[in-house]
Amino acid sequence: MNATGRDQGEDMSETFPAADRKVVVDFGDDGPFGPFAAELTFSAADKTVSFLVTRGSLLGKAETCPFGATQVGDDLWLVSWREEDGLTVVQVQDFAQGKVTSAVTTPDHQLIQLDGSITLV
Length: 121
Fold this sequence. Notes:
Elements: E1 21-26, E2 36-43, E3 48-56, E4 62-73, E5 76-82, E6 88-94, E7 99-105, E8 111-120
Antiparallel strand pairs: 1-2, 1-8, 2-3, 3-4, 4-5, 5-6, 6-7, 7-8
């Protein structure tokens, strides 16, 4: 059971706002990666996130990875995944405020924080 009293194995499609939907995250133009935006599609059935970088130096990077999502407050979710190249992403997705904070550990062990917007589409 997690901090909200829900079982970790609970069907997130009924609770996670992005389950079986696409979200757009935009980290602006002058963050640590320069301009950066991506589309994320979360599948509740197979618990994967598919992403496509739509702006910036990583333009066109796409992948599908297993992810986890835990509700930590009203419309507030802790979401994480690990990419094939070893990059690890941990996000706090605030759907009420339309904000996202992402902590990224790069394959060479740098820790980078990005703050941006999140929009359900």
